[in-house]
## 1
Amino acid sequence: MRKLYQICLFLLFLISWMSIVHAKPQVVATTSDLGSLVSEIGKDKVSVTTISKPTEDPHFVDAKPGFIVKLNRADMLINGGLMLEAAWLPPLVLGARNVKIQPGNPGYMNAAAGIDVLEVPSVANRAMGDIHPLGNPHFMLDPANAKIVAAHISGRLCQIDKKNCEYYRNNAATFSKKLNQKLSEWQKILEPFQGTKIVTYHKTFPYFAKRFHFNVVGTLEPKPGIPPSPAHLNTLIPMMQKEDVKLILIENFRERKIPEFAASRTNAKVVIVPIMVEGEKGTDNYIALFDYIINEIASALKT
Amino acid sequence: MNQLRYMLIVCITVGWFIILNTHSSKAASAVTDDNTSLANSAKESSEEIHMKADEFNEIVEQLQGMKAFLEQMKQDYDARFQEMQEKIAILEREKALLEKEKALWRIETQTGTETSPHTADFPTIQETGVSKEDEGPFLPSFKEEEEPPDVEQQPLPPQTEMDTTPPSPFPAIPELATPQTTTPQTPTIPETGQWSPAQPITLWSAGAGYMNISFVGLFAAAASTSPDLDELEAGAHDPIQRGFTVQNLETVFEGAVDPYFKGQANIIFQIDEEGESFLEVEEAYLTTLSLPLNLQVKAGTFFTEFGRLNQLHPHAWNFVDQPLVIGRFLSPDGLRNPGARISWLAPADIYTELFLTVQNSQGETVRSFRFEEDGEGLFGRSAVETKVRSMEDLLYVPRMVTSFDITEEQTVLLGASAAFGPNSTGRDKDTIIYGIDMFWKWKSKYASGGFPFLAWQTEVLRRHFEAGEDESAGLPDEVIRDWGAYSEVTWGFKNRWVAGLRGDYVEGEKEATSPLGFERWRLSPNITFYPSEFSKIRLQYNYDSILSTDDTEHSVFLQFEFLLGSHGAHTF
């Protein structure tokens, strides 16, 4: 008995020792935009995996058991929060049986914390569609929010990996400096188009529109999560004509038929953009993603 | 903590005094020096005096500039302070309003009147949205200050000369310092305290917020060539009569118990053929969150982890009814009983998990084991043993699952299970059920709303039943082996639309008296429309071929479902 006890202790020691030696923090991000920020800050000192594919609708991701393994080994989990991942993340976290990434521990990070959340409904009522009761979760489409998240990430990485703290902070500072610079660049590009009226497919772009001064006058979806209906289009299209909507902004995973139909009846142009890092070729980091989006919009509005 | 802070402040003030004193005394001595030198060399050129005067003027100018700047700052801050106060007032008003609405809403939901009482709901939201946007122009300007990185941009004193004055009240902030000091604060505060407009969410998770409550209503209308649909359909939640059936009214409670456990309970209401309502505790269990060594324990009463379908509640099925083999081998209600389960996640790169479930082996939810219905067991024998007496009489169910991606868009899950336990037909009579299951899914890289996808699921079960001797029925002691399988394909061909096809086969049971025990195969095409994730309408046709009697039966079902509240996510 005593011997068994000793062996067990030894094994425990070995396992804990191994986990200490295996020191490079493993970070799992639910979406690739968050993952990209982690890579900007952690660079070669952390390893990052993302769960949702950059090209798919982040609301509906399969809770594939393969991710359980990743979460099981993770030192940190970053999710967007605001119930974006509510439909698929909980079973994965439960299956992962990893204390480090349970809410309340430094290894669990809700990126929405500290963000000025838009579109928070006063009453959660599903008659209004699949609204997010905590507010719109697409806040990463405002680069200013990315700065907050980056600072948050570097703080958390510091808690997890104290010895590289300075490194993370420096990287975060460099990143937000770069982002500041780029942001003013982007704003300059879009300055001539301030106040342009646009229509989106889903309520994906309120943060983006607010930052770059677009005016979202409607969505193709009659209500969040409900596909466009003929009745809704019958009111939307005249409105678009009246309001002189210039742009229909849609994500790259949406069907194209209805946006193109609406565009053909109005003055608007359809612009298809990725909303996640690596959602399209040449968008392999957060800044490149915005370069792409801004460029697409600007070139569509110029002509 | 506070004491420390006070000490620090005191230290700093004292330090200031000292520095100021030395400075002024030095200046004073310098002045006196100058005076003496002036007195000594009275003939100093007036130019020098002019220069001194210039210098002096310059200093005065600087000081005045500083004063102006400080005043400006003060005004600025006052204005901001006022703005903030206004904002707070607005927010508080909004909060009060919200709370009023909340209270109203609560009352209305409690009294059970319409859940969408306010036609005003929509407008109010729009209003808040609009008001938010109205605030836009000034909101960011004041918000931005909170964003740590923006502090870099904050205009420092415009007078560059100021930099030279050593005790500048505005120390140039080192770029890195700000994110450092602010980051630990910004993230933590909003997560816990701080009122945020997000709070009405408590409503969503129904009141207390400690658990999610949801309700699922599942109904079916059936038409069939067979007058006794309950002899065709094996499952306890299947449509069992021509006309309408209440398949399942399920209330789900789930949430974190504490930092160590998660709890879940599924309470089912059903209405039987006679119109009698009854209640059934389908599952109630807790799961550990953080055991060491990759272990996880589940304890309570729950669906046995055997195969894929057995663990799913009827509303998560892809078809209106239960596959025949599941109803016959496992149980019409699904194999479930009180017990405990331990699982181990292998520390491999490919997901592999081992389960071992230990449960009671008696009751009506373990059909092939210590099952008893009106004194009857299986295969025409009367039930002799119906209790658990020792450890050996428990039901042991090991299972192993593995899953991996074949390509970026395709995933496979393979599983093997077995169930060992005693049966009711005699002393030391055991049953073993083996099962293998397979699930394959393709989902587009550009999926929107989870569509399009194609999935294929198959389970094959084999049963080894040691039947005891029953002298009164004239049945010998024998070993009965039979098998069954189902295979289903579901195709999400368009947003919100899923087409399905299922094939079923079971071997005949010995001494069977109805199609429930006969050898038969069945083909069930169906189509499902999901108006949203929270509702569905399904049309299904069953082609039933009963091989033992050479009969063919046709059935058509229309199923509809609604889901209220916050329902936990489903597993893959």
## 2
Amino acid sequence: MIPFDFAYYQPSSLAEAGGLFAELAAQGKEPMYYAGGTEIISFSRLYQLFPRAVIDIKKIAECNMLEQKNGKLVIGAAKTLSQIQESNVFPLLSWCSGRVADHTMRNKITLGGNICSRIPYREAVLALLVSDSEIIIWGKQGLKKVGLNQVFHQTLLLEPGEIVVQLVIDQEVTRVPFTSTKQTMDGLVHYPQDRIGYPVVSIAALKKKNQINFAFSGVCSFPFRSTEVESFLNNPSLPWDEKIHQVAEKLPAEIINDMEGSADYREFVLKNMLSDIVKRLEG
Amino acid sequence: MVNLVKMDLIELAVNGEKRLVMARPADTLLHVLREQLGLTGSKPSCKNGDCGACTVLIDGQPIKSCLMLAVEALGHEITTIEGLKDSPIQRAFIDKFAFQCGYCTSGFIMNCHALSVIHPDAGDETIREWLQSNLCRCTGYEEITEAIKSVLAQEPKENNG
């Protein structure tokens, strides 16, 4: 039970949602956009979030699209991870989404919610980062489309009141070679049905124009795709073994060291997983 | 636009009936089902989306009712364990001894029922993926798996994916 009250609004348009946000913020209600709502409910129950108003975006048509047009795949932010996994329109995204929480939870967790989550892992975002996806955001100036890699740095950088509307993926990228793997405390996860758990290390990789794009979760306290790591790993003048051996020096932050896995163990797993990925994509 | 800014009457469609409840916007569906409607078959346990004991069906899809607001269920068909009558999966749980203490059973049954309706041709991988959504601390997983498989075996098969 959530031990405090908030107001619930379910607008049917982006303009209505944005207007509500501004109005409620001006009243000091600290509004939050709400899609699947799993994190808002669980964190509110634990007194870790205190919204005085939530604005449910699930009835906004633009946030519910899942279509392929003009060579682009468009996925609304309110689409659930189960809907995305079952549609399988982007297999790498299906793989990454299919390892978040469990099947029933994925009937509620949305793509937009996973990207904006406060939990460190956010594995669905890995597929979007390596595929150079674009994100459509609604704000005071209307809609804007930007590269996700431009606005995702540890977390999605949104201005107050902005709404994640859609993710747009080049359909060509959905057909290139990819691989993705995850290890939890209990073992290696190749398929969603293998094991549930937060990642010790989770990696998504995609080969595009003789370069491998890598994105990581569970290594640092945020999911990331790093230019420095990627340039280093794709440097043709060094052998793969040597690059993988040195990869920890290029990471954007300290390796997580907690009860799910020590920093040394995570580094060990990271290197082994990279070796496997390179074998799979480079032959 | 649906707005619920304070405690008010809302009408929910539960087990084929229209039911009026007095709900706060912050009330979870689990809380309202149990405390307002007396439908105590949906069990509170972790209240964090981990255990699946509170699983209900929303338009036929399994959902953990501890992580859904009651107001979100407006306009959707809610099915609780009380709404299942003599379903094949209920009989299979008895026949296969698929419960011990029984606390997790209603959640498992709702999830298994949805699986048998949505994926009547489910193979081992799909069954395993779906069943991971629920926890049984008596660890009766083998019998539960046998129960769902016995129901699926009665369904016509198209493929065994």
